[in-house]
Design a protein that fits this description.
By secondary structure, the protein is α+β, with helices and mostly antiparallel strands. The chain has four helices and six strands, in the order αβαβαββββα. Strands 1, 2, 3, 4, 5 and 6 form a six-stranded antiparallel sheet that branches. β4 and β5 form a beta hairpin. The termini are far apart.
Length: about 170
């Protein structure tokens, strides 16, 4: 076997080993990160979106000067009728979503985590019922990493579709 072929085989083995180690770390929960201590609603605001491209917020505009204000913006969930009924319907949709776990549920606030199946990454998702504007504001953010390949936005848009259909 030539020297170059041995080097390629060794490189392939190292890459495979690193991939297996990363998956094992995820399965063991080492990539879950920690719950942010500042979640919740303060003065009618959810926490600002992350400064990295792995979050969305319907209140991004309320954080002027934020480096990802425009990219993180997502529409709130619109509803008609009783806000408590809308929040209950939303909670049921969240509960029915694979990987979801409701951590806190109040009449005007819902906090859930979403865990990916393979790597066990955790995203924190908050919903707040705004009684003045009759919308449900949302913030969804990954705990670890830089990007999320649009996973948080896609999750909220999928929930929006189901919410509006129901």
């Amino acid at each position: 076997m030539s020297r170059w072929l041995r080097a390629l085989v060794a490189l392939a083995a190292v890459i495979a080993l690193l991939g297996a180690a990363t998956i094992a770390a995820g399965r063991l929960g080492w990539l879950q990160g920690q719950r942010p201590p500042d979640l919740g609603v303060v003065d009618g605001r959810l926490k600002a979106p992350s400064t990295t491209p792995n979050s969305v917020s319907s209140q991004a505009r309320l954080h002027p000067g934020h480096p990802r204000q425009r990219e993180a913006q997502i529409d709130p969930l619109a509803f008609r009728g009783d806000g408590a009924v809308a929040m209950a319907r939303l909670a049921a949709l969240v509960e029915a979503t694979d990987g979801a776990h409701i951590v806190e549920r109040r009449a005007d606030y819902l906090y859930a985590t979403f865990t990916t199946p393979l790597m066990r990454f955790v995203d924190d998702v908050e919903f707040w019922l705004d009684p003045v504007d009759n919308v449900i504001h949302v913030r969804s953010a990954s705990r670890v990493g830089h990007g999320d390949r649009g996973a948080n936005r896609a999750r909220i848009e999928a929930l929006r579709q189901r919410f509006e259909a129901g």
